[in-house]
Specification:
- A five-stranded mixed β-sheet has the order 4-3-5-7-6.
- It has a single domain, classed as Uracil-DNA glycosylase-like domain (Uracil-DNA Glycosylase, subunit E, 3-Layer(aba) Sandwich), CATH 3.40.470.
- Helices cover about 35% and strands about 20% of the residues.
- With about 200 residues, it is α/β, with parallel strands linked by helices.
- It contains eight helices and seven strands; from the N terminus they run ββαβααβαβααββαα.
Length: about 200
């Protein structure tokens, strides 16, 4: 097993192929008490280089859409199902996802978000443990036991999907609108209830 220092995995050699292809472990970023936790698939080339999830074009789209919904990138937490870049940016294998699952569960438990947003097919299927048709299910919320508690998981298209298919912009928009509405809703901090206009 690797070492975890608070929210950060500092050393891990569970997946030989990923140890081989990564230049570093990419941990989640954002506040340790964020209301919204975004979960992507895994680091790509730029993430691996910068050591931060969702940099590059996908990150820009996510940032811009969040800003429109009144959420700053600095207020949300963003992490990935696997923390090391798969070779040639292939999808992580089931075994790799399983190897990293404990870190993800620990992070979810520590953050204790109001909503976990799964960005794309791999994270949606990983968190919900079933097949997910992301485009048709985007914006739906399902309960799942994560980080030792039942939590709301919001299925969302991957921001990069909008680069290849403009019609996905509305889908992303609507899902993030929902995430923003759920943030701080019913949180223990007694923030204003967005449902009581």
């Amino acid at each position: 097993m690797g070492d975890m220092d608070g929210l950060d995995v500092t050393a891990c050699t569970n997946c030989p192929a990923l140890v081989e292809s990564r230049s570093r472990i990419v941990n989640g970023t954002g506040p340790a008490d964020a209301d919204v936790l975004f979960v992507g698939e895994g680091p790509g080339e730029q993430e691996d280089r910068d050591g931060e999830p969702f940099v590059g074009r996908s990150g820009t789209i996510l940032d811009d859409t969040l800003r429109e919904k009144g959420l700053a990138r600095a207020d949300v937490r963003i992490t990935n199902c696997v923390r090391c870049r798969p070779p040639e940016n292939r999808d992580p294998t089931g075994e790799e996802l399983e190897n990293c699952r404990g870190y993800l569960e620990a992070e979810i438990e520590l953050i204790d978000p109001d909503v976990v947003v799964a960005l794309g097919k791999v994270p949606s299927e990983h968190l919900l443990e079933r097949d997910v048709a992301v485009t048709s299910e985007a914006g739906t919320i399902e309960r799942a036991t994560l980080g030792g508690a039942d939590r709301d998981v919001l299925i969302c298209v991957h921001p990069a999907a909008t680069l290849y298919d403009r019609s996905q912009e509305e889908t992303l928009d609507a899902a993030l609108e929902k995430a923003a509405a759920m943030a701080g809703d019913g949180g223990a901090g007694g923030q204003s209830q967005l449902g009581d206009f």
